[in-house]
Amino acid sequence: MLDLFRRAPPIHTVAELTEFIDRQAAFVAQKGIYEYARARAGHYSKVLFQEPEFQAAADVSRWQTYPLGLAMVGELLEGVLLQAWRGDRADLDEAIRALVLAVFDRYPVPAALGAQQWAKSRGELDQHLKRLGTHPPKWAKDIPEPFWQRYFDLMPIHEKMRTKDASTTRSYLRVTIINIHDELTKRMDLAAVVGDLAAAKVAAS
Length: 205
What we know:
This protein is mainly alpha-helical. It has helices at residues 14-41, 45-50, 52-81, 89-104, 115-130, 148-153, 166-187, 190-204.
């Protein structure tokens, strides 16, 4: 019960930031899947969630949308860190790319997807992270724009039952990324994290 009243711990280091990235990307994926399925199933959602077929489909969706969550959280992170970064933006983007891909690489190949699909997801995530420096940083609400349709298409609900819900999913992602931005800026010691990230980059070079 006391955990409900405890504030989330502050973020001072790259290691703590890594945990934040992982948790938030997983949250984006999993909450969206189950909230959407619950809304579509209505009173039958408890029955649906116990069905092996739905559980298998949700597992596939979760692993397919997790890299999209990483891409969005990574892009959000760039916009926040850039405010205090004193070096070249390209160096920051490379550090963020390495950090986000390291989070992805924590996980073995999901049985629900297979090695080929997992490698494809990593490649697409890598390409998105490489493009961060090609445009100005986005507002948090705009970050989901390249992802929301694909995210919606990956929901574990038959396409005939979700044809009119795309705008709802778009709104969910916009609000979620805004909330993640707010949590990140409240919890993170920006100067400390930027300094730790810069030191890690120097040590690795």
